Automatic annotation (TrEMBL):
InterPro entries: MATE_euk, MATE_fam. Belongs to the multi antimicrobial extrusion (MATE) (TC 2.A.66.1) family. It is found in: Membrane. GO terms for biological process: xenobiotic detoxification by transmembrane export across the plasma membrane. This is Protein DETOXIFICATION. PANTHER family: MULTIDRUG RESISTANCE PROTEIN (PTHR11206). It comes from Fraxinus pennsylvanica. Keywords: Membrane, Transmembrane, Transmembrane helix.
Length: 479
């Protein structure tokens, strides 16, 4: 008995100590997850605001043009869609290459390289803006050749010609945004975007109604507001102590290895464009359905709704891209892996909230866009599909952000090509035109594409050797 009691006295503290260690390790693990989540949300929330405010510039312009009549509104809407496909999405994609390069350089404490990478990106994007501006100049000719209404196409051509001066600051803005984002400096971006958006309302009113430039004034207002945003960010970068280590003035090194930047920037652009273009293609396909006015109206409402929600996903994607690139550059593979897992959890939670909200407002959402009962009923039918697509889009957007942080743009371009153009669009055509499901079928095809994309990205992340990614990132920074 005494031996057993003595053994009990000896064993008891050991068990207690093991339990304490287990509880401490569990507590540390939970604390790390909470800390990572806070860090990502501190990045993501301002980035969401930035994306919404910058997206609002085009929306505000179209709202002002809408008061000029039906034809100007149709022209401005088509012009904006054409500009997004042929210009904005290309520059947005190319600028996202900085999320890999600048993010990893910042993590590796190669601070001076952020300024050099950013200057290099600005040079490349400005160069690409020149041929893109020629495409915008011939907008009306291109649209008419594709069988679009002549009057609407001519108006769209006028709008885009006057918006050409905005193409160049838009490209610079993508670079400055990434420069600040990758060093976790996001509040100045939010403030500058907010100032530009507020001024944009006044500029639109001044040019559209006061000076009576009409549709031309709305397009020119876009250009001016982009330049204002660029100027505000440039002044902050120049004079802020927060950027003193990362921007040390203009450097000739920016002209070096332009080809190396293009090798990452072009797949980045293709990756983004493949996804953006597929959604626009669905709206174009809706015009071939029976009752095209109804189908196109409902699909346009659906697309606008998705783009609004997408701004949240883009913010989350930008945050995880920054976290992953910073951790890889710093040589911390476990931290990078943990960041991806936390981001996936946040995306699932956000998707569930947005999806539930979308379903709950399905009966009233159509009334915000139209008084037509047929349109309202159709929107109500398609909203559950939008809820599912919003959930999948949010999840894949976060995984795509992690991929950009790792520099997997070329691989993601192939994934997006297969997901949307081998699976998504063909399924949309089959559902809509073979099974005669109409606009619902088109959106079901998009959901198929999103599902394939999300599954492929998830499998890649699960199979990733993060130690190898760290080595690759550190080799890239040194080169």
């Amino acid at each position: 008995m005494e031996e057993e009691e003595e053994e009990g006295i000896v064993v008891s503290p050991l068990i207690s100590e093991q339990q304490t260690r287990h509880e401490e390790s569990a507590s540390d693990f939970i604390g790390e997850l909470i800390g990572e989540a806070k860090q990502q949300l501190n990045l993501a929330l301002p980035l969401i605001a930035v994306n919404i405010l910058q997206y609002c510039l085009q929306v505000i312009s179209i709202m002002f043009v809408g008061h000029l009549g039906e034809l100007p509104l149709s022209s401005a809407s088509m012009a904006t869609s054409f500009a997004s496909v042929t210009g904005f999405s290309v520059l947005l994609g190319m600028g996202s290459a900085l999320e890999t390069l600048a993010g990893q350089a910042y993590g590796a404490k190669q601070y001076h390289m952020l300024g050099i990478y950013t200057q290099r990106a600005i040079l490349v994007l400005l160069s690409f803006s020149i041929p893109l501006s020629f495409i915008w100049f011939y907008t009306s000719t291109i649209l008419i050749s594709f069988g679009q209404d002549q009057d609407i196409s001519i108006g769209a051509g006028v709008f885009n010609c006057w918006m050409i001066p905005g193409l160049f600051p838009y490209g610079i803005l993508q670079c400055l945004n990434r420069f600040l984002q990758t060093q976790n400096t996001v509040i100045p971006m939010m403030i500058s975007s907010g100032i530009a958006a507020l001024l944009h309302i006044f500029i639109c009113w001044l040019f559209v109604f006061k000076i009576e430039l009409g549709i031309k004034g709305a397009a020119l207002a876009n250009a001016i507001s982009y330049w204002i945003n660029v100027l505000l960010l440039a002044l902050y970068i120049k004079f802020s102590s927060a950027c003193s280590k990362t921007f040390m003035g203009f450097s000739r090194e920016a002209f070096d290895n332009l080809l190396g930047f293009l090798k990452l920037a072009i797949p980045s652009a293709i990756m983004i464009c493949f996804e953006y273009w597929s959604f626009e293609m669905v709206v174009l396909l809706s015009g071939l359905l029976p009752n095209p006015k109804l189908e196109t109206s409902v699909l346009s409402i659906s697309l606008n709704t998705c783009w609004m929600v997408y701004m949240i996903s883009v913010g989350l994607g930008g945050a995880i891209s920054t976290r992953v690139s910073n951790e890889l550059g710093a040589g911390r593979p476990q931290c990078a892996r943990r960041a991806v897992r936390v981001a996936a959890g946040i995306a699932i939670l956000e998707g569930a909230i947005v999806g539930t909200t979308t379903i709950l407002v399905r009966r009233v959402w159509g009334k915000l866009y139209s008084n037509n009962k047929e349109v309202i009923r159709y929107v109500e039918k398609i909203m559950p599909l939008l809820a599912l697509s919003d959930f999948l889009d949010g999840f894949q957007c976060v995984l795509s952000g992690a991929a950009r942080g790792c520099g997997w743009q070329k691989l993601c371009a192939f994934i997006n090509l297969g997901a949307y153009y081998v699976v998504g669009i063909p399924c949309a055509v089959i559902f809509a035109f073979v099974f005669h499901i109409g606009g619902l079928g088109l959106w079901m095809g998009i959901i198929c594409g999103l599902s394939i994309q999300a599954i492929a990205l998830l499998m890649i992340n699960l199979c990733t050797n993060w130690d190898k990614e760290v080595k690759k990132a550190m080799d890239g920074v040194q080169n």
